[in-house]
């Protein structure tokens, strides 16, 4: 199913009504679980990253908000001596597309769960996964797939082997393509080639239910990653008994999207036949320390623009309101 | 509405000629009658799964956009394009070299020594990468076919092209002076289809690997 998003979509009556209804329903769900809305400015003046839509305000180069997580992190670090534990957001972000069919203006709803010293990250991760599991029902999706991964499964072995940033990027790109032969090619001649190639094979061997975690036992880094595996196992044990009938849970050991950002568990929501994930998130514990705050954080974002596309191209995937 | 049919993109030309016989007798065998016609969408032996016959250079775009869920394409084509797709397996067949080829008698050192080297190719990205590795500069002459003619007619000093048996080179009095890389057929998949419908797509990918990987 091809995606046909115009870069700056004008929403006519049907999609406009759907956007409003979905935003309200999702923000209601988040509010019911204690998440309070923050609304960072649409205009960024501090940092103007690549990929943002930039323009001059007088002599000053500014950018449109390109990502809520970054905008919120900056706001929270600047304005709050102690962080709020639960934050939600809704609105548009503007980002230059990587693929020609992606929109520049994108509508999102999401949340952040922030913890401080002594608070349990595992509980926060499970809380977010539970919320994400409720979202297909809120949106009226007939069925969905939730992929659970963990950025540390790739990050830690690469760090342990001391790969150069360039070589690590090549390995990650090959894993992102799910191409074990490219991993072996990239590592040719490196002392860790045999170990990391075997690890890549283990990561890519399964994309199935919770039993997929067992594939990691074949990895040379099984011991190094035991803590991550235990964490994922605990999360799965907490989530499986409450899994809605219309939701399939899969373990994606080779999820490397956003590996430079995520540090731990990752979650991605798909609908059968969708070409792009509909929601994504995970743990990113390096974000706030980078802004001078010793806080840990995780969150997810529901990509409403993609859902609007899907409702147009595959209405059969949704319950009729 | 039922789930849409699954489309698999197969290349026309050299790779396609090799893979069609390999698929015979498998669940993804192409309909022989349709193959003889001029249609470009061919039913397979599996209901609900059809093959698209596409030019290699167009094929990755169909897969990346999710129109086709799976595809088979040479790694030389993939390396020339920056497409977001999955590359599930090196199928091994269709193996060839990407080589620098010049008129017989002209050595690599003589080419290096040229003050203004002109290279004709339909693989500019791989050629530029090789030039960078070698610390050379050259004028690239973009061509889409029959590159062997370029050195003969003075359009370029040498060419960078795929070499399988070397027969075409020999027929034009050309020889390989350097091997830049190697290419083989790859099984590619649309990221979205693979991740959102693994139960439908993975068995087909496994069937293709079983039939085609030597």
Short précis:
With 321 residues, chain A is an alpha+beta fold.
Describe the secondary structure blueprint for this structure.
The complex is a heterodimer of chains A (321) and B (214).
Chain A: H1 13-32, E1 36-37, E2 43-44, E3 54-57, E4 60-64, H2 68-79, E5 86-94, E6 105-115, H3 121-139, E7 144-150, H4 152-160, H5 165-176, H6 180-187, H7 193-204, H8 226-239, E8 247-251, E9 265-270, E10 279-283, H9 287-290, E11 296-303, H10 304-313
Parallel strand pairs in A: 1-5, 7-8
Antiparallel strand pairs in A: 2-4, 3-4, 5-6, 6-11, 7-9, 9-10, 10-11
Helix pairs in contact in A: 1-3, 1-10, 3-8, 5-6, 6-7
Chain B: E1 6-11, H1 14-23, H2 32-36, E2 41-43, E3 49-54, H3 59-64, E4 70-74, H4 75-80, E5 86-90, E6 96-103, H5 108-113, E7 118-121, H6 124-134, E8 139-142, H7 149-152, E9 158-163, H8 167-171, E10 174-183, E11 185-189, H9 191-196, H10 198-212
Parallel strand pairs in B: 1-3, 1-4, 7-8, 7-9
Antiparallel strand pairs in B: 2-3, 4-11, 5-11, 6-9, 6-10
CATH architecture of the largest domain in chain B: 3-Layer(aba) Sandwich
Quickly give the structural class of chain B. Answer: alpha/beta
Helix content of chain A: 25-40%
Helix-strand sequence of chain B: EHHEEHEHEEHEHEHEHEEHH
State the shape of chain A.
Answer: globular
Instruction: Give the strand tally of chain A.
Output: 11
Largest sheet geometry of chain A: 8 strands, mixed
Task: Please identify the oligomeric state.
Answer: heterodimer
Named at the architecture level, the CATH assignment of the largest domain in chain A is 2-Layer Sandwich
Average predicted local confidence, pLDDT of chain B: 91
Domain module count of chain B: 2
- The end-to-end span of chain A amounts to 23 Å
Features of this protein?
heterodimer, A: 321 residues, alpha+beta, BirA Bifunctional Protein, domain 2, 2 domains, eight-stranded mixed beta sheet, three-stranded antiparallel beta sheet, 10 helices, 37% helix, globular, B: alpha/beta, D-Maltodextrin-Binding Protein, domain 2
């Amino acid at each position: 199913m091809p995606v046909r998003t115009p870069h700056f979509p004008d929403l006519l009556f049907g999609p406009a009504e759907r956007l409003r209804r979905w935003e309200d329903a999702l923000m209601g769900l988040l509010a019911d679980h204690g998440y309070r809305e923050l609304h960072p400015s649409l205009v960024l003046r501090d940092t103007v990253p690549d990929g943002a839509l930039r323009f001059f305000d007088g002599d000053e180069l500014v950018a449109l908000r390109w990502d809520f997580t970054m905008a919120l992190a900056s706001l929270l670090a600047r304005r709050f001596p102690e962080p709020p534990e639960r934050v939600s957001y809704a609105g548009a972000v503007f980002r230059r597309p990587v693929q020609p069919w992606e929109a520049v203006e994108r509508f999102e709803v999401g949340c952040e769960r922030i913890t401080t010293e002594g608070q349990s990250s595992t509980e926060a991760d499970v809380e977010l996964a539970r919320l994400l599991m409720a979202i297909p029902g809120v949106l009226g999706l007939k069925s969905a797939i939730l992929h659970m991964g963990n950025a540390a499964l790739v990050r830690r072995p690469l760090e342990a082997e001391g790969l150069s940033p360039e070589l690590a990027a090549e390995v990650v790109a090959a894993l992102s393509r799910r191409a074990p032969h490219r991993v072996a090619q990239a590592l040719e001649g490196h002392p860790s080639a045999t170990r990391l190639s075997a690890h890549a094979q283990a990561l890519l061997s399964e994309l199935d239910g919770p039993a997929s975690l067992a594939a990691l036992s074949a990895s040379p880094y099984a011991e190094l990653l035991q803590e991550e595996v235990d964490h994922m196992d605990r999360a799965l044990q907490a989530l499986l008994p409450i899994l809605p009938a219309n939701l399939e849970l899969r373990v994606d050991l080779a999820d490397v999207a956003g590996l430079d950002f995520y540090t731990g568990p990752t979650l991605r929501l798909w609908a059968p036949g969708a070409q792009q994930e509909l929601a994504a998130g995970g743990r990113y514990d390096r974000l706030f320390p980078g802004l001078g705050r010793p806080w840990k954080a995780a969150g997810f974002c529901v990509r409403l623009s993609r859902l609007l596309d899907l409702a147009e191209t595959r209405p059969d995937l949704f319950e009729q309101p | 509405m039922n789930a849409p049919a699954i489309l698999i993109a197969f290349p026309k030309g050299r790779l396609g000629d090799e893979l069609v016989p390999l698929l015979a007798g498998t669940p993804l065998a192409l309909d022989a009658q349709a193959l003889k016609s001029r249609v470009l969408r061919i039913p397979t032996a599996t209901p609900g799964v059809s093959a698209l016959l596409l030019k290699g250079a167009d094929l990755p775009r169909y897969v990346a956009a999710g129109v086709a869920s799976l595809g088979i394409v040479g790694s030389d084509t993939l390396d020339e394009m920056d497409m977001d797709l999955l590359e599930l397996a090196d199928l091994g067949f269709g193996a060839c070299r990407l080589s620098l080829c010049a008129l017989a008698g002209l050595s690599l050192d003589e080419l290096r020594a040229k003050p203004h080297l002109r290279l004709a190719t339909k693989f500019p990205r791989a050629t530029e990468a090789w030039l960078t590795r070698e610390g050379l500069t050259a004028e690239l002459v973009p061509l889409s076919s029959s590159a062997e003619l370029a050195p003969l007619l003075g359009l370029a000093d040498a060419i960078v092209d795929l070499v399988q048996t070397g027969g075409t080179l020999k027929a034009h009095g050309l020889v390989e002076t350097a091997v830049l890389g190697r290419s083989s057929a790859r099984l590619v998949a649309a990221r979205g289809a693979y991740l959102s419908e693994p139960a439908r797509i993975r068995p087909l990918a496994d069937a293709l690997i079983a039939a085609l990987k030597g």
